[in-house]
Every structure is written in structure tokens, then in C-alpha cells.
Amino acid sequence: MKKNNLYLxxxxxxxxGAGWLLFGDITGDAANKDTSDxxxxxxxxxxxxxxxxxxxxxxxxxxxxxxxxxxxxxxxAAEAGADGLAxxxxxxxxxxxxxxxxxxxxxxxxxxxxxxxxxxxSGKIATxxxxxxxxxxxxxxxxxRLNVNYEGQQVNRGQLLATIYAPELVAAQQExxxxxxxxxxxxxxxxxVRNKLKNWKLSETQINTIExxxxxxxxxxxxxxxxxxxxxxxxxxxxxxxxxxxxxxLSNLNSVWAEFDAYxxxxxxxxxxxxxxxTTNAYPNKEFEGTISFIxxxxxxxxxxxxxxxxxxxxxxxxxxxxxxxxxxxxxxxxMENTLAVPASAVLWTGERSLVYVKTNPNEPVFExxxxxxxNRSGDNYQVSAGLNNGDEIVTNGTFTVDAxxxxxxxxxxxxxxMMQDESAMMGDMEMSFSxxxxxxxxxxxxxxxxxxxxxxxxxxxxxxxxxxxxxxxLKAISADDLGTMEKQHLTKSIEMLDAVANNDNLxxxxxxxxxxxxxxxxxxxxxxxxxxxxVQKCPMANNNKGAVWLSTEEEIRNPYYGDAMLTCGSVIEExx
Length: 577
Hints:
Cu(I)/Ag(I) efflux system membrane fusion protein; 29 strands
């Protein structure tokens, strides 16, 4: 027994020794290798440093997975940021640059001698309204025959325009025939009857003919008093017309207007009396010289332009109203020396701001959005007075593609709607003033508005209409006598939109009108003395991804523009206490 135990012990020792000889070094090497690999491994890419974003709202960046705080969608892993990039810098791949044909240009100084100072304008030929004439009926009656039937017809002075049956004129002729027999005994009556017919534009010859023949004429002609081209036929054969009612409008095209649109920042460059060189596609090899005769004193708020007009002599009827023309004017102020100039294709506009993308790294495709201040436009270039330095490299082709890349990477961009505070400030900057009485009455309408908003959340179109009608009636009951122009406009537009919602049973149309309602209703609410706290909330996806706001008494998002489809899409942009 002892001998067997001794053999087992010897066998165990031999086995352990063989195992160490066979696997000892390998295990040690593996351990050393694991230790080395662990010491050399870079943990910078581990999930601890990974950022998560929303595919619909790329401005959302969170250190861990979860739901988007705006729309509730699952967050996705964001691309690892490029090392060494500033907060608003973006980096594009060379392949993306090539596919989008993105081109850059180095900004340089423009010397005065290199620029001719000519400003290019686009416009159209219009009729010279100073030469327009309206041919009217001088007496009441029925148009028996209309001799002018279409626009563009040429009419000469004295030409027959129409024949009219006029009962009053028939009676006046009978009066003349009777008065003619009494002209010796009652000359005043005779003279008064003749003057009556003269006032109806009957000629002396026509009046004498009636008197001599002693017969009443039922249908009377109307003759053109001027020559011109028919620009509008304003009556039809068989119509009953009143005295003074227009029948036809004539335009004298011997002279025409060339009307150009000048941008707000170009106004100072123009003055009445300036020479303007005009070309048209119809006669590309001809240049016509005109003189600026009028500059519209009122700015068009929609296009931010004013009309600059030149009067042209239209010899040979070369110019046709509606024809596109191009004008070049020597600016009233000359280009300053050492002014930076950029191609017009490099500039993006957002509201009142002008933006360009600057390449910040000369060796890599790294870009940053920068706001600039523009001066005058000369040809296809803009003068830049602030925002760029000589030698800066900017994107001149594919600017919108770069901006889209910035938006997708969650960086500041023209299209990014993350600047909600700025939009809230814009509404708050509308300086409107309301009395305490108005605030109190408007506050009563807010309760009906909130019920309408809740009905939109519930997608109940009939309830939306009912509460919109109730809100409208409360607003109509408010006295607007003491309101300023802006205040009245916002109140009137709010009532108009509420009536549109009330008279519509289509939920999508109701929500479309609700967008415009809030653009007027919310600024009023922000300007009055509120008895309740309200939250101004916004969904960036509503209104075709332009974003839309609404009011709520609860901080929790309940989206009226999508209802159950995206109930929690949105965020609070301001709290009204």
C-alpha cells in the first residue's frame, strides 16, 4: 500500500514537471503579450467617449444612448469628431468635395482702377402710365355694338369704338327738337338743352343734324379721343354701362418705362437723372441709353427692393411691354480702394444676415461659417466691408452643400433651426404696447385658445372649429380703438386665421392656419400682462420643417401639429410669467 502511494506521488511530480516544460513559456508569453496589449491599447474609442445624436435633430449630442429630448426617437451613434476642430468647424472628405464640385477662391483686394463701378440691374418693360387713357361711356345705356374686341388692337383718334342705345339721350333729343321751335321765345331753354347734349360729348355737327332733321336717333356712336394700343377691354357687347363707366383702356407706346428692381443696399447708388445703359434679349447687339426718371420712395417689404424707372422713346415699336431687360448704371459712389470683393455665388442669406464659408485649414477640407457685411454689388461680385480678411479662402461653388454638411454634423449652419432663443427674442423684440383693459380682455380669449390647442392635440377637427369660433368671438369683442398699427395688424390677422379654422373641417388645413395664427397670437401674448404663466413651445418639423410655435400652460410637450403621430416632438423656447 505504501509502495503504491509512493508511485502515485512520483507520477504526479513527473506530470507537473512535464506540463511546466511544455506550456510554461507559452503561458508566460501569452500573459506578457496580454499585459503588453492592454498597456498599448487606446481606449479613446470606447463607448465611454462615444456621442449619440438624433437623425432628425442633429444638434442633439448626448454621451449615452436614449431618446431624443425633442421628438422621442431613438438616438443613434454619432460620427467620431475630427481631432483639432473648433466648435463650429466641419470637415468633409475629399470624395464628398469632388462629388459636390465644391470650389474655393482666395479673397483679394480690388483696386479702384480694376473696377468700373457699374451696377447691374434686372427689370422689365412696362407701359408708360402717363400716356394711358381710359375711354368711357358719357351716357348710360346698352352697348349695341363694340368695335374694339381684343388687347393689342391699334386705335386712332376719331375711330368708332362702340354704339350705345341710351334712353336718356333719346329723351334729350326730343327736348332739343321741341326747344328748337321755341328758341325765339325761350332762348335760355334752347341753350340749356344744347349744352346738355354737349356735356354728353355730342359734337356741334351731331346736335345740328338732330335739330335740322327733326328725327330722334336711338343708337349713338362713341369715338376715340386719343390714339393708342388697346391694353384692356373693360366691357362687352350687350353690357349695360353707366355714365362714366370705362369701356376700353388705351396705351400710347411711343414711350415706355423700363422698371428695374434695386436691392436695399444699392439705393444710395442711384439718383434721378443718372444715365442707364439698357440691353434686351430681343436685340442683343443693341444698347439703348435712358435716364432714371423715378425712384420708388416705398420699399417692397416682400422682396426688399425698390423700383428704379427709366423712360425710353419707343421708336419703331422695338420695346414690348413685359420684355425682360438688363440695365447698367454707374454708381453714385465709387468703389473704395482696397475693398474686398467676393463672388455672389459665395454668399448665403438668412433673414438680414449674409453668410460665407471660410476654409480654415489650407491643407485640409475644413470649413467654418462666418457672417459678413456686404456693400454694393458690382456685376457678379459683392463688396465686403466686414467679416473677411485679405487672403481668406472661401467656398464659391457648392456653398449650400457645405451648409448641409454642417447641419448634419450638428454645427452652426444657415439651415439649422437650433437657435430657438434667437427666434423667441425676435418675437419679443416686436415692441407692442397694450392697455391693462386690453390685457384683461385678451386673457379671457386665451382660455378658448388653449382648448382649441388641446383639440388639435387630440386631432378632433369638429372641436377645433368650435373653440376657434369661440376664441374669434372673444377677440372681436375687444375694442381696438386705442391700438397702434402693428397691434391692430396682429389682432386682425389672428381673428382672420381663427375664422379660417372655424370654417374648415379639414384637420390638415386647420393646422396650417394654426401656424399663421400663432405667428400673430403669440407675440401679443408675450406683450400683455398675463395672469397665468405660459410656455412658448416649438416643433422644428412643423410647417414643412420651418418650425412652428404654440402656447401651453404645461411645460410637458403635447404637439398640436402632429398629435399622436409625434406627440412629444418639440421643446420650450420661452416661459412667460
